[in-house]
Design brief:
four-stranded antiparallel beta sheet; alpha+beta
Length: 170
């Protein structure tokens, strides 16, 4: 997660024209890399989790990818939460794709809302482990099965039942 959010940013920024040298002649990101890397998205993402802003997380997976969707309320007042989508590699755990709609800060998919969802995944794995459990709806039904008793099915006319009455001598 740290690698995705901070360390891969200079490589992607090299291909972006918006990070070129500015008009004042100062060096932009292309020349100096991300010397000003910050943990602000991580601090803000952690605050989103602690405030309960991350909710409605759903996930699914196939053979190669693990997909997570979540709603994250923005820090500024808004009518609707941001829709965050994250795709992880099942083999390596690397973030393949991340987006946050309609966040203006997620041009590269590295806003604090995405980091909040990634931190939520890390917290979940730390708390419960990496094994996934089968949901109760996919397990075999255990209700209304009845007791397992020794039964001997036969005709009613052939059945012998015990009685609590004392036998009367003839």
């Amino acid at each position: 997660m740290h690698h995705y959010a901070l360390e891969t940013l200079p490589a992607l920024a090299d291909n972006q024209k918006c990070f070129d040298d500015d008009e004042d002649g100062e060096e932009g990101i292309n020349e100096q890399g991300l010397g000003h890397m910050t943990d602000k998205p991580f601090k803000t993402g952690r605050k989103y989790i602690e405030s309960g802003y991350v909710h409605d997380m759903t996930d699914t997976k196939d053979d190669d990818h693990y997909f997570v969707k979540a709603h994250v309320w923005p820090s500024m007042r808004s009518d609707y939460p941001h829709n965050v989508t994250v795709v992880l590699s099942v083999c390596s755990g690397a973030v393949i794709y991340a987006s946050c709609y309609p966040c203006k800060a997620s041009a590269l998919g590295r806003c604090s809302h995405v980091v909040a969802v990634l931190l939520s995944i890390v917290d979940q794995v730390t708390l419960h482990g990496s094994r996934s459990t089968t949901p109760c709806t996919s397990q075999e039904c255990t209700r209304n099965k009845g007791k397992k008793r020794k039964k001997n099915p036969q005709r009613i006319s052939d059945a012998k039942y015990r009685t609590k009455r004392k036998k009367v001598p003839n």
